[in-house]
Amino acid sequence: MSLTPEQLARMSIEDKRQLALELLRRKAAEGCGVTPAAERDLPAYTRQTYDMFLSSQSPEHAAASRFDRWVSEVEADGAWSFEAPRRAAQRTVVEAERADGTRLEMLNMSSYNYLGYGYHSEVIAAAKEALDRYGLGAGSSPVISGTLQVHKELERALIDFLDLPDRGVSLFSSGYAVNTGTISAVVHQGHHVVLDRSAHMSLLEGAQLSRATIWYFQHNDVADLDLVLTRIGAEGRRTRILVGTEGVFSAAGDFGKLAEIVAVCKRHGAWLLVDEAHSVLVAGENGRGVAEAQGVLDQIDLFVATFSKGFGAVGGALVAKRDIARYVSWYAKCRMFSCAIDPAVTAGVLRGLALSRSADGAARRRRLRDNADRLRALLRPHVDIRESESWIVPVQYGSERLTLPLNDYLQRQGLDTSVVQFPAVSKQESRLRLFVTSEHTEEQLERAARIVVGAAERFGFIRG
Amino acid sequence: MALRTSPLPPPLGGRRCLFEWSIDELAHFFFEIPTAMVMPLLPRGIYPVEPRPGIALLDVGFVAWGAGNWEAHWPAFTEVSVLLVVQPDLACPMPLPKFAFFALNICADYQEFLDTEPVRLHLPTFHSPLESVFDRERYAVRVSSPSGPLIELTNTQHPIHYEPVDWVGQFYTVDDGILYMGVWQWIALAAEHQAPGHAGRVFKHPVFRGMDLEPYHDTYLQAFSKPGTGSFQRFYETSSLGRAVYDRRGS
Predict the structure, then answer these.
(1) What is the value of pTM for the model shown?
(2) CB-closest option in A21, A48, A427 to B193
(3) What residues does each domain of chain A span?
(4) Is B26 on the interface with A (CB under 8 A)?
(5) What would the pLDDT profile of B62-99 be if each residue is shown by its tens digit?
(6) Do residues A303 and A245 lie in contact, with contact meaning Cβ atoms separated by under 8 Å?
């Protein structure tokens, strides 16, 4: 369409408005060259992918029905790739069954069973023996009658493993509960919790439960942490400050700057909690975590270990000065008012801990690091793997709109990964995460890399 | 004042379209501020969106409206809006809202707009002459008034990625003690990002209803229309939700 200046001059404001609107619509229809090809033909439900974290203020359960409708729409398209039940243990190859009955055999890089202890024969045997001895569950709160002999054995073993004889242990039935329970026990209203912006939800919820004032510092930015602590100190009142961070951050696979953070915390008189969920048994020369690797293990006030990653089980533990651990055992409500950790799992964790301290553990850790290095080397020339330093290798694909079709595609190509997108990470920073384990073979790593590179070419996030 | 008489878009969410206005430039900056700061300003039943516990989102928006929007004689004028991001009512029969806002203040440099805005949409207005500068190259905006500067803000991501958008959302506002809800729609070539960086300053100014925003530089989100392309905003009928009740008196 072309108009002469005279024609334009004769047009009413209303006509000009309609013309501009029409031009805008045509540009949108052409794609304007600004929407990547990979996104242009995606189903409408992908536009809502990142908005689905909204709740609703209406009295009806509108949020639930909206979410249900959206999931149903994706399922009807055959693209719902989440929650497909795995039919056996989290080994390096798994088979999952989709809602429509399709079975997919996949290379498993979505499980954080980093050292393979989750299905180790000795671990399983120890769990079976405890099952025979103690039955299915602990049968009571740990502060009443739910503390069993095997629990005390694990507590002693953890102290010995960390070589911190002045510490005590408080066991929890989930790693998430260690954080929510510990934080809400040790800080209260009027206190301050300062968290890394990338901190896990369990740390955030623990801070919320505590009713302390919550502050955030830029991810791994020690200077910003110092600034925040200075601002708190400027309030001039005696108060308690707890800083929370992690050994390995699961979104980017980077290490927490624990040595520097310890120094800043000491200067400001703040307690430090370090969640070593993705690093205990795995990081450090002896598997004592990133704190060991950075030489500050004995300076962490609240050391959080979870049993669902390196141990391949479930549950967790707080390791702290004996009086603090004892206090948390009684004042963490989610511990006191919940059943003690499963005895069979506890026995399995105990056996896994013993194995990890042997040559077997050292060998697995070495293989894990070598595997992670190998996978990074295979992927780095082709895709953006961000700041990956650990056994979590992220591959950034960017747009949230790609999450559903990409994850579906990868599974059908035979690769299972763990996606993370907004709001867990910033918009346009969506990524796959490949959890490397010590048990992956060279061939499996190469195959995984081939599938990822193929996906990157198809979905437009290939480098170069 | 005359309502637009030419055909308007069909209803949205069961609400009639009231008007469609053209926008020359648009830049919105969403700041992370303590939830405790905003709770006194929200009536009961309206809850802030918290991207993380204890943090609410304040949207400081700059809009350069096109000429002739409400009446033919209306010039182009600028507006600064002060909005809180709140949880939407998902039971409203409309597409999933992109955002829901609670309006704290609308400030503009065209008096007739301010005089008529409460009638159109029940929005709170702040009367002040404004001097604004919008830098299309840097996506930077500077607005000041006789009471002092309001904002000096700039985009933190380069290059910036655009795509056609058709966003719908809700807004909530209190007028004469009554809480209202309305629906908006924005059609544009737009960009939104969460790139970190120092976005600039929001100064102490009466338009911000007593909130001291100067310590807060971290934006959660920034959104822009592509300079020079123009965009359109539609507003749909508002509905009364009854008397606005505050648990603590809002300022």
Answers:
(1) 0.89
(2) A427
(3) 1-34, 78-108+361-459, 120-356
(4) no
(5) 999 999 988 889 999 999 999 999 999 999 999 999 99
(6) no
Yes or no, beta carbons of A204 and B194 under 8 Å apart: no
A260 touches chain B (CB under 8 A): no
From chain A, the residues in CB contact with B56 under 8 A are none
Chain A positions touching B22 (Cβ under 8 A) are: 17, 20
ipTM: 0.85
Would A78-108+361-459 and A120-356 be classified into the same CATH topology? no
Contacts of B4 (CB under 8 A, 6+ apart): A14, B19, B20
Which residues of chain A make contact with B20, given a CB cutoff of 8 A? 17
User: In chain A, what residues touch B49 (CB-CB under 8 Å)?
Assistant: 54
| A95: Cα within 13 Å, side-chain hemisphere | 5
| Residue B161 contacts A where some CB pair is shorter than 8 Å | yes
pLDDT digits over B10-33, tens only?
999 899 999 999 999 999 999 999
Calculate Rg over the CA atoms of chain A. Answer: 25
Indicate whether B7 belongs to any domain. no
What pLDDT, on a 0 to 100 scale, did the predictor assign at position B58?
Answer: 96
Residue A441: per-residue pLDDT: 98
* Statement: residue A292 has pLDDT above 80: yes
Domain range for B33: 17-243
B212 touches chain A (CB under 8 A): no
Does B208 fall in a domain?
Answer: yes
* Domain A78-108+361-459: CATH architecture, name and number where available: Alpha-Beta Complex (3.90)
Contact B87 A54 (CB under 8 A): yes
Question: Which of A56, A208, A214 faces B90 most closely, judged by CB atoms?
Answer: A56
B72 touches chain A (CB under 8 A): yes
- Confidence category of residue B250, pLDDT binned at 50, 70, 90: very low
Nearest-by-Cβ selection for A60 from B55, B91, B164 = B91
How many CB pairs (< 8 A) connect A and B? 99
Residues A140-173 as b/e (b if ≥16 CB within 10 A, e otherwise) read eebeeebbbebbeebbebbbebbebeebbbbbbb
B127 inside domain: yes
Q: Answer with the residue of higher pLDDT: A27 or A230.
A: A230
- Please write the tens of the pLDDT for every residue from A315-347: 999 999 999 999 999 999 999 999 999 999 999
- Look at the block and give the residue holding tokens 């141990």: A311
What does the pLDDT average to over A46-69? 81
Segment B82-92, tens digit of pLDDT: 999 999 999 99
Six-digit token string for A23: 């031009």
Q: Which fold has domain A120-356?
A: Aspartate Aminotransferase; domain 2 (3.40.640)
Asked if the C-beta of A14 comes within 8 angstroms of chain B's C-beta atoms, the answer is yes
Of A27, A66, A216, the CB nearest to B52: A216
Q: What is the CATH number of the domain that holds B85?
A: 2.40.400.10
**SS3 at position A6:** helix
Instruction: Work out how many domains chain B is built from and give that number.
Output: 1
A48, A54, A57 ranked by CB distance to B45: nearest: A57
Burial level of A95, CB count in 10 A (0-12/13-18/19+)?
middle
Q: What is the pLDDT of residues A175-210, one digit of tens each?
A: 999 999 999 999 999 999 999 999 999 999 999 999
Cβ–Cβ under 8 Å, residues A303 and A320: yes
A63 to chain B nearest CA, in Å? 6
Any domain includes B250: no
- Closest-approach residue (CA) in chain B for A424: B51
What lies within 8 Å, CB to CB, of A372 at 6+ separation is A388, A390, A391, A393, A436
Sheet of strand B200-202, all strands in order from the earlier edge strand to the far edge: B131-135, B140-145, B148-154, B200-202
